[in-house]
Amino acid sequence: MEVFNYSENQKWFERATRVIPCGVYGHFSPAPCVPTNAYPFFSTRADGCKFWDVDGNEFIDYMCAYGPMIMGYHNPVVDEAFITQLKQADANSIASTKMVELAEFLVDLIPIADWAFFAKNGADVTNYAVMIARAETGRKKIIAIKGGYHGTAPWMQGIGHPGVTEEDVANVIRIPWNDLKALEHALEENYGQVAGFISSPYHHPVFVDNEYPAEGYWDGVQKLLKKHGVVLICDDVRAGFRLHLGGSNEYFKFKPDLICFCKAIANGYPISALVGREELKVTASKVFHTGSYWYSAAFMAAAMANLQELKRLNAPEYLEKLGNKFNEGLIKLAKDYGFNLKVTGHPAMAYYRITEDPSLQLHQKWCAECTKRGAFFTSHHNWFLSMAHTDADIQKTWEICEEAFKVLKSSI
Amino acid sequence: MGTLSCPFCKTEPGNIQNAIKASIYLKAVLPSLVDLVKLDKPAKDLIQSANEKIFFSLRNGDKTFLKIENGEVSYSPEKADNPTIHILLMSPEHAVQVFEQGKLPFLLKGFTRISFLKKNFDALTKRLEYYLKGPQNYTEEEKKIYAILQLKTALRSAEVLAEKEEISKKILAGTPQGILKVGIESINFTAYFGYVDGKWRYIDQLSGQNFSSVLILKDLETTELLLTNKLDTFAGLGLGKIYISGIIPIIDNVGLVLGRITQYIS
Ligand SMILES: Cc1ncc(COP(=O)(O)O)c(C=O)c1O
Questions:
Q1: Topology match between the domains B15-132 and B146-263
Q2: Which of A13, A16, A207 sits opposite B248 (nearest CB)?
Q3: Which residues in A lie closer than 8 A to residue B170 (C-beta atoms)?
Q4: Are residues A211 and A262 in the same domain?
Q5: Which residues of B28-48 are buried (b: 16+ CB within 10 A; e: fewer)?
Q6: If we measure between CA atoms, which residue out of A168, A158, A182 comes closest to residue A130?
Q7: Residues of chain B contacting A23 with CB distance shorter than 8 Å
Q8: Which of A304, A283, A219, A281 lies closest to A255 in space, CA to CA?
Q9: Geometric angle at alpha carbon B43, from B37 and B46, rounded to 5°
Q10: Residues lining ligand 1, CB < 6 A?
C-alpha cells in the first residue's frame, strides 16, 4: 500500500507561514495532527466522501470538514439549490423569502421550535442563545460543562488563554458532565443569578472518551433548571441532524428551550440557526444580533435542500447503521492485532481510542499511519460519517486500518 | 552581590506581584546556579576553591540553600546544614530590590565572607545573568548553555506559578494530570514538568514514572526563537521545527502557564 508524500503540502505550508498566523489557524491548524508530517494541510478538490490534497493524494474523509459535510461533497441536489438561488439573488439590501421558508421548515421539523433565527457560524448562535437567556432572566451567570466547546468568543474560552480576561469568564461556571449534584450545587450557590445552562446533548469533548447522558440525567437537569427558572440551551452545533432530524435532544428525550444548529445544516454551506420556544420569541426579538452575511439567500436554499434530502433519505438511521457496521469491523481488526480500540459517542460521529497507551501516543501513531495511506483520521476529535460513505469506502478503510495495525504491532 | 535581574522585570515595588517574583528568584533563578557551574567553565572557575553554604531566607516565605563545594553547587529549598552565610530578605519587596536593583540584603551570618560574596558570588550571578538576560553574541557552546538555563529556569518558574498564581492554578486545575517531557533534539537535552505527589512541579530526571506528553524543539535556533517569543509555535509544528505528541492539553496548558512568566520576569 502506498504511503503518501506531502512535499507540495509542505511547500504551501511554508508559504502560508509567511503571511498567515499559524500557517493554518484554528481547528485546521497543525497542532492536533500528530505527527504533523503524517497529515496534509491543503486540498485541491473534494467529491463525495473524498478529498484530494495538493500532492494529489486521495483521502476517504472521516472528518467531513469537522462536521459540516453530511450529504457528500458536491451533492448535486444541494449544490443545484444553491446555484439556482445564487443566480436569482443572494446578498442584497433586503431579506429573502427563502429565510421565511427555511424558518417554517425548521419549525415543522423540530418539535420544540416555534421560531428560527439564522447566522453563519456555530458561535454566532451559541452567543445569541446566551444573550437571550440573560435578557429573559435578567441574570448574568451561565453554567456550562467542563470540556464542552461552544466556540471562541472570550466567554467560551478558558481562563489564561491569550486575549481572554478574567472578567470575560467570571460569569461562566463549569461543572462536570453527568453530574446532577454539581449542577444542583452550582444553582444553589448562585441562587437567583443563573440565566442559562448550555450543553451539548451528549458529551463530545476532544482527547477523551465521549459520554452519553446517564439514565435520568436530562430529566434531572430539566427539573433543576425549571425549579431555578434557568433557560436550557442545547448546543447541537456538532451533533445536530446526525442523530435525529428533530434535534439530538429528541434522541435523548429532553426538551430544551433553545437549540443551536450549524455544521450539518447545509452540507458545508455557511449558515447556522437558533431555534426556540414561543415563550422566548419576544425576548429574542429584543436582543440585537446581526452580521453582514446572515441574510445570504443561497445558503438558506442550500440548507433547505440539504435538510429535505436528509429527511427523504432518513439520514440518521442510515448513519447509525453504517457507523455500527464500521465500528464493529474496526474493533475486530484491532483485536486481531492485539489492540483494544474503544469506541464512544454516537456511531455516526464516534470518538476512538486505543486503550493500551493512556498517553494516546499509540493511538496517534495508528491514526497517522492510516492517514498516510488514505483514511483521514484525526486522533483527538470524534470522526464523522456521511451519506456519501459507501460499503466500498468502509471496506477500503478497513484494509488501510489493517495495514496500520500491522505497522503499529511491528513498532512495539 | 550582582543584580540577578534576569531580564525579568516589570515591577513596581510594593505591588502584589512581588511575592511571586521573589519566589521565582528564590526557587527558579538561584537554583539555576547548579546547572550554570555544571555547564559553564568560567562560572565553575569562580567557585573552584570555594567552600560555602549560603542560606537565603525570605521572612515568612521561601528559602534557598546553596552548597558550594568542590567546584559544584547543590540546591535545597530548606536549610540543609549550618550555613556559612545567611542572607535575610525582609519582605518580597525587599527581595525584589535585592535581586533586581542591587539593594543590600541583611547579612545575618558570614561577615568574614563578604569578600567571597562581593567578588566570587557577585561574578557568578552576573554570569547567570549573562545567560538569563537573553541572547547575545554567544559562542556555539554558550548558545547551548543559554537554551538549557532558560528552559530549566522557565520550568522551575512554572512550578512557582502553579503554586502561587491564581490564574495558573485555575489553568492547571483543568489540566489532565501527567508529565510533560520537554527537549531540544539537536543537543539531546530533556527536562520534565508534571503532576507528581499532588502538585505540578519541575522534574530534572524521571525516576520510574512515564511521561504522558512530549514537546521537542528541533534545534537551538528554534529554542531561541521560542524563548524570545519570536516563534509562531503552530507554524513551527507544521514546519517540523517543533514536535509534540501524547496528551496535547497538558502541552497547551503548561504552555499557557509558561507564557505567564513574563508577567513577572521578562
Ligand atoms: C458543539 C459545538 N458548539 C459550537 C461550535 C462552534 O461553532 P463555529 O466554529 O462554527 O463557531 C462547535 C464547533 O466545533 C461545536 O462543536
A1: yes
A2: A207
A3: 159-160
A4: yes
A5: bbbbbbbbbbebbeebbebbe
A6: A168
A7: 232, 234-235, 238-239
A8: A219
A9: 115
A10: A 121-123, 126, 149-151, 200, 235, 237-238, 262
A47: helix, strand or coil: strand
Q: CA B165, B171, B175, B180 torsion: positive or negative?
A: negative
Q: Is A193 within a domain?
A: yes
Q: How far is CA B36 from the centre of its chain?
A: 11
Q: Give the Cα separation of A221 and A225 in Å (integer).
A: 6
What's the rounded Cα separation, in Å, for the pair A352 and A331? 10
Domain boundaries, chain B: 15-132, 146-263
Q: Is A151 found in the same domain as A91?
A: yes
Confidence (pTM): 0.94
Give dist(CA A247, CA A136) in Å, integer: 23
The topology (CATH level 3) of B146-263 is: Nonspecific Lipid-transfer Protein; Chain A (3.30.1050)
Chain B hits for A146, Cβ within 8 Å = 174
Range of the domain at A293: 76-312
Q: Are residues A303 and A320 in the same domain?
A: no
Element (H, E) at A232: strand A231-235
CATH code of the domain containing A364: 3.90.1150.10
Q: What's the ipTM?
A: 0.94
Contact A60/A393 with Cβ under 8 angstroms? yes
When CB atoms are compared, the residue of B176, B238, B249 closest to A36 is B238
Chain A residue with Cα closest to B243: A35
A303 and A198 both lie in a single domain:
yes
Q: Does domain B15-132 have CATH number 3.30.1050.10?
A: yes
Asked whether residue A204 falls in the same domain as residue A228, the answer is yes
A257, part of any domain: yes
The last residue of one of the domains, among A312, A339, A355, is: A312
The three-point CA angle A317-A323-A325 to 5° equals 105
The answer to whether residue A66 sits within a structural domain is no
User: Are residues A223 and A274 part of one domain?
Assistant: yes
Cβ-contact A221, A178 below 8 angstroms:
no
- Of B238, B249, B257, nearest to A13 by CB-CB distance is B238
The answer to whether A25 contacts B234, with C-beta atoms less than 8 Å apart, is: yes
Q: Are residues A335 and A223 in the same domain?
A: no
Same domain? A308 vs A323: no
Burial of residue B228 (CB within 10 Å: 0-12, 13-18, 19+) is exposed
Is the Cβ of B157 closer than 8 Å to some Cβ of chain A? Answer: no
Task: Among A277, A296, A312, give the residue marking a domain's end.
Answer: A312
CA distance B149 to B223: 12
Q: Is residue A67 part of a domain?
A: no
Query: Which ligand 1 atom is the nearest neighbour of the CA of A26?
Result: 9
Digit-by-digit pLDDT tens for chain A (412 residues) are: 999 999 999 999 999 999 999 999 999 999 999 999 999 999 999 999 999 999 999 999 999 999 999 999 999 999 999 999 999 999 899 999 999 999 999 999 999 999 999 999 999 999 999 999 999 999 999 999 999 999 999 999 999 999 999 999 999 999 999 999 999 999 999 999 999 999 999 999 999 999 999 999 999 999 999 999 999 999 999 999 999 999 999 999 999 999 999 999 999 999 999 999 999 999 999 999 999 999 999 999 999 999 999 999 999 999 999 999 999 999 999 999 999 999 999 999 999 999 999 999 999 999 999 999 999 999 999 999 999 999 999 999 999 999 999 999 999 8
Task: List the residue whose alpha carbon is closest to atom 3 of ligand 1.
Answer: A150
